[in-house]
Specification:
Blueprint: E1 4-14, H1 16-31, E2 38-44, E3 48-51, H2 63-68, E4 72-75, E5 83-85, E6 88-96, H3 106-113, H4 115-123, E7 129-130, H5 135-138, E8 154-156, E9 159-160, E10 163-169, E11 172-180, H6 185-190, H7 197-207, H8 214-218, H9 224-239, E12 241-245, H10 250-264, H11 267-271
Parallel strand pairs: 1-2, 1-12, 3-4
Antiparallel strand pairs: 2-6, 3-5, 6-11, 7-8, 8-9, 10-11
Helix pairs in contact: 1-10, 4-9
Length: 285
């Protein structure tokens, strides 16, 4: 089997708006034929709560908690529920929907692309499995991403260990995912609204039964660099690819910065309903 060569970029730690803008720029550049399929690894310069493109904020997000922890807040281009990004490795992939290895089915595309995540955990010595939720779990509409599993996400002993989200735009599939080394449960639950302290405490107690992190499962401390090494090997194995570096020019970073300012730092994108967010950040494309 001939291995395809993808671009790879480890863009390091940035604020939430820059991280989301770079993912969207990679999608745009791939759609325009400027770059081949690309794998990106990145981190977050401060704790950041991201919400799905269609998620409402008024009834679920506690913005006082976000302020308390000096955290960033941003709406993703992808769907899904809210995710707290902190001590973790985040990955993103952009690839054409028409690519011969990409199924039309969303869940099957998750399966193919998440093979890299599976192999990355194996590199760390963690025995993970794909999550196939029960019918009732699929009906769960929790606002907190790591409270529920979806098809082909990773679980260890029945606990979720990573989360993924996906969108398709301009013929390109963007998938990105959170691979936490640690989860600060107190910070996470400070960022959501609950009808009572008793409900918050009960759900937080239950959370530890539903989610786990790399350091918790291994009883070892990991670094961002350790995860980059493990998961780059994992994606190469799982997706049968080689990689070569993607180096961004000053003009590329200027485009990312402008999109971050125009879209991902705007109140309109982050707080308004979908119909009020149409075409934000697209004026210069």
């Amino acid at each position: 089997m001939v291995q395809e060569t993808w671009k790879f970029i480890n863009s390091g730690h940035h604020d939430a708006a820059t991280n989301m803008a770079l993912d969207e720029c990679l999608l745009n550049w791939h759609s325009e034929g400027k770059i081949p399929p690309t794998l990106r690894f990145y981190g977050w310069s401060k704790p950041s709560l991201t919400i799905g493109q269609f998620q409402k904020t008024k009834k679920t997000i506690n913005f006082d908690g976000i302020t308390k922890h000096n955290a960033d807040f941003v709406r993703r281009l992808t769907g899904g529920s809210a995710v707290l990004h902190d001590d973790e490795l985040t990955y993103s992939i952009v690839i054409k929907e028409s690519h011969p290895q990409i199924p039309q089915s969303v869940t099957e595309a998750y399966y193919i692309l998440s093979k890299g995540v599976l192999e990355g955990y194996k590199e760390l010595g963690i025995d993970v499995n794909y999550a196939i939720p029960e019918r009732q779990m699929l009906k769960d509409r929790s606002a907190v991403c790591f409270e529920k599993t979806a098809y082909y996400e990773m679980i260890v002993d029945g606990k979720k260990i990573s989360g993924n989200a996906q969108t398709r735009k301009d013929g390109v599939l963007l998938q990105h995912g959170s691979i936490p080394m640690n989860i600060n449960e107190d910070m996470l639950f400070d960022m959501f609204k609950f009808s009572s302290d008793a409900l918050r405490n009960r759900q937080q107690r239950n959370f530890s039964k539903k989610a786990i992190s790399i350091d918790s499962i291994t009883n070892q401390s990991h670094t961002y660099e350790m995860l980059v090494d493990a998961f780059l090997k994992g994606f190469k194995t799982g997706l049968h690819i080689d990689t070569e570096p993607l180096v961004l020019t000053d003009a590329d970073w200027q485009e990312v910065s402008q999109l971050a300012n125009d879209k991902y730092r705007s109140n309109s994108w982050n707080y308004m309903l979908k119909k009020e967010r149409a075409h934000i950040g697209e004026a210069n494309r």
